[in-house]
Each structure stands twice: as structure tokens, then as C-alpha cells.
Amino acid sequence: MNIPLVNLARQYQSIQKEIDAAIKGVCTKSDFILGSAVNTFETSFARYIDTTHCVGLASGTDAIKLMLLAAGIKPGDEIITQANTFISTILPVIELGAKPVLVDCNPETGAIDVALVEAAITKKTRALLPVHLYGRPAPMNELKNLQINKSTNLQILEDAAQAHGSSINGNKCGSFGDMAAFSFYPGKNLGAYGDGGAVTTKSARYAKTLTILRNIGQRKKYDHVRLGFNSRLDTIQAAVLSVKLNHLDRWNKKRAAVAQTFIKELADIGDLTLPSNSTPGVETNWHLFVVRTKKRDALMKYLEKNGIHCGIHYPIPLHTTPALKFLGYKQGTFPVSEKRAQTMISLPIYAELKENEIDYITRTIRKFFST
Fold first, then answer.
1. Domain locations in the chain?
2. Residue range 212-269, pLDDT digits in tens
């Protein structure tokens, strides 16, 4: 048996007629740049997130960059985020000349540690950048309380790149902060057929700024009112995303069912630590199913040998990444993030996983720990 970490071909086959028709519709109309499908998707996604505005962009990384710019982030400003995230969370911070201030994560959930965030806030702090890591919502209510208590000038900017459909007490990720950045990288729960991203917000002012920034600084054609970027969501990608958005909740429910089977069948096996799933009101979209074990490398090799392809998200914490050495952090600064990086492994999880594949994955893991 061969089980990939992600199977986009199987997903495409399940919606092929809809996708092909959507792409053909754009090609027939030939409005490839900021065409009607972009506005249609933006309206639908804003409604889905229960926010007022959605601005489609070229990628999730661009979404973070333009979100920071719209928020008025300037060189020297401090942005607090977590050490155990993907590098794209902080690359835009650095590009704008601001300073990423890293903190460790909660040892149980992997989410940003609110107490450490509070301790890291200084007079230079302009924004908190929590990550809904693996699709599990960050502690947004606690962070919003911190925002209220500390300063009205402290903004919350969500990295919701992995959180399509995740929620807290029924409120979707992407609706809590001043703005939120989404990625539509193909492997996401809501993925395009190429790069894509978006920012959601309830602020008309932010939305207007974002639409100017994404389109070479234009308010209208040839009316360049500020320095901007070429960061538009392609019309074809928007059409694909509109089709997929109609299936997102169903796909997320299937992911949840797979996750519950994993949790049931892999309980109390060796030193295997399963994802925490007990916080009341918190609903993850199960973008990733990440387990931890001191035998990570041996387990991963064994699964690979048996045709089960896994991943590591992420093997090197930001503060020990060679390219970020200039930030000045040392090994040992964030022990929780470092320990998780050494022990975590992401199992295949997607709506199209078959029952016999799920059974094969759990049986193979149990066999590994029994030998």
C-alpha cells in the first residue's frame, strides 16, 4: 500500500466536473486579472468567515506582508509571535524592517503561550501575530483580553494560513483579530491549484488599503497613490477556490472523523503523545494530525518503508534556523519548541483517506511500538 501525506489528485477526481467547468468559464470570459470570479470568491469567503471584507492576494506570505503594511507596521516596530511556526510567518516582518519577537509555545497544545506574550510586550510592541498552528485555534479570547488590558494601539493580526474553518465557540478563525492572513497553498484544507492568499477584516479602511497595495498601488488604473505590489489573486485560482469552498465543511468533517479514529486506535501506545482535543468550544479543522514520540526518526523510517509517507512540521524552530541567526536567539532559548521539533511527526490526514488506509496506518504504528 502507498499512502501519501497529501492526495490532491484524489480530491480533484471527486470534484472534477465542477473544477473543469469553473476553469473553462474563466477561459471563455478571459478576465484573467481581477476578473469577476475574484470578487465572487472574496464575497463568499468573507461571508464564510463571518467578517466584512476579504481581499484576495497572490500568496499567504504576501497576505502577511500586506496585512502588516495596512496595519501601519514600520521599521523598528516589534511583532510578537511563536518560535514553532513556519518561517513565512516572520519573513514579511523582517522584510519591512520590523523586529520579530519570539516566544515559546504551550507544551500541551503547541499554541502561543499567552503568559509569555504578556511578558514580552514592550513600548515598541505594535502587534501580536498568533498562529492557528495545524488548524488548531490560538487562544484568541485570552489574547484579545491582553490587547484590551495593555493598549488600544496593540493590534492582533492572525496567521490563519492553516485554519480554514477552525473556530472557537462557533466563531471562525480569521474573524477575531484586526486582520487575518490566509494561505491557499494547494495542500491547505482550502487550497488553490497554485499559490494564493487573502486577508480578512471587518475594517473598510484596511480593506481599501489592501486593494490598493495588491494592485501596484493603484486606486484606479494609472492612478498610483502609493508604492504597492503585484499581489493579485488570479481569477482562475479564485474560481477553483469558490468550487472548493462549497465542499470545505464536508471535507473538514471527514478529517475530524479520521482524527477521532486515530485518537481512539492510537491511545496508550508506547510513548506516543496524541494531539490535545479537549478544550471546550475549540474546533480544529485538522489540517495536520501531529503526534510526538522520542522514537520519531525510527517511526518515520518504518512508516516510509511500509508505504506511509509522513512529514515534520517543523523540524527546525525559527530561532535555530541558520537564515535567522542574526535575530540573536540561542539554542535552549525556547525549550518547548525545541523538544517538539525533535519528537513530532505528521500523519496522513485528508477527507479522501479510505477506511482500509486509516486501518493500515494505525495497525502499522501499533506494530512498530510492539516490536
1. 8-103+110-245, 248-370
2. 999 999 999 999 999 999 999 999 999 999 999 999 999 999 999 999 999 999 999 9
User: Which cell is 295 given?
Assistant: 522514537
Residue reference for cell 518504518 = 302
- What superfamily in CATH does domain 248-370 come from? Aspartate Aminotransferase, domain 1 (3.90.1150.10)
**CATH level 3 topology of 8-103+110-245:** Aspartate Aminotransferase; domain 2 (3.40.640)
Whether 17 sits among the annotated catalytic residues: the reply is: no
Cβ contact 138:132 at 8 Å: yes
Catalytic residue among 17, 65, 99, 188: 188
- The CA distance from 286 to 8, in Å, is 16
DSSP string, 259-312: HHHHHHHTTT-TTPBPPP---TTEE---S-EEEE-TTHHHHHHHHHHTTB--B-
What pLDDT is stored for residue 262 in this prediction? Answer: 98
Residue 150, pLDDT > 80, answer: no
pLDDT digits (tens, 9 = 90+) for 86-107: 999 999 999 999 999 999 999 9
For 79, the grid coordinates are 511583532
- DSSP per residue over 25-93, as a string? HHHHHT--BS-HHHHHHHHHHHHHHT-SEEEEES-HHHHHHHHHHHTT--TT-EEEEESSS-GGGTHHH
Omega within 30 of 0 (cis) for the link into 314: yes
pLDDT at 152: 66
